[in-house]
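FAQ

Q: What does a record look like?
A: Structure on top, sequence underneath. For example:
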């Protein structure tokens, strides 16, 4: 059996979970999310604990078993606590600022880059070189963070660019002078 799929999910008190014809819907203090469970996966709830079972041992269905459990766990955590990614900007003259809820970044190009957050995502800029992306949907928060990082990925010589907090950038040696 799937190691992840057989782990039960404990639902916090402030989250309401409902099942409706293969659709799992969770609502909490931060918002409301839903997920369509595949037909081969059975979801049941007893005493604020959600368990999962599968119809057969096919490879594809075994993969869906763990995937469904992980996605529903992310939905429950998202509506109760939310998710956050932090990006760090390094480089001379590279900075970010918040204007009317939109992110304006200066990354060494001839023009500033304006990023309009999709619904459910908010930006915070605690300092000119830090960006916090917050939301209830883990996939959307990660996708927006990846798109921002992709604007100017860190380069291996000086480390200039946009990187995730805690990300290690492997440095290369620069040119050596000839004698």
């Amino acid at each position: 059996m799937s190691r992840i799929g057989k782990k039960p999910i404990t639902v916090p008190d402030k989250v309401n979970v409902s099942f409706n014809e293969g659709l799992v819907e969770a609502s909490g203090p931060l918002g409301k999310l839903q997920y369509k469970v595949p037909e081969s996966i059975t979801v049941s709830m007893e005493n604020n604990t959600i368990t999962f079972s599968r119809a057969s041992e096919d490879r594809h269905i075994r993969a869906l078993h763990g995937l469904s459990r992980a996605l529903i766990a992310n939905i429950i955590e998202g509506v109760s606590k939310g998710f956050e990614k932090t990006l760090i900007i390094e480089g001379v003259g590279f900075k970010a600022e918040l204007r009317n809820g939109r992110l304006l970044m200066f990354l060494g190009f001839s023009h500033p880059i304006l990023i309009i957050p999709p619904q459910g995502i908010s930006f915070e800029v605690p300092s000119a070189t830090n960006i916090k992306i917050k939301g209830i949907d883990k996939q959307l928060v990660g996708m927006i963070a990846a798109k921002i990082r992709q604007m100017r990925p860190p380069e291996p010589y000086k480390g200039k660019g946009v990187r995730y907090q805690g990300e290690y950038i492997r440095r290369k040696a620069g040119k050596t002078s000839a004698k």
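Q: Is there anything notable about this one?
A: The first strand starts at residue 9 and ends at 10.
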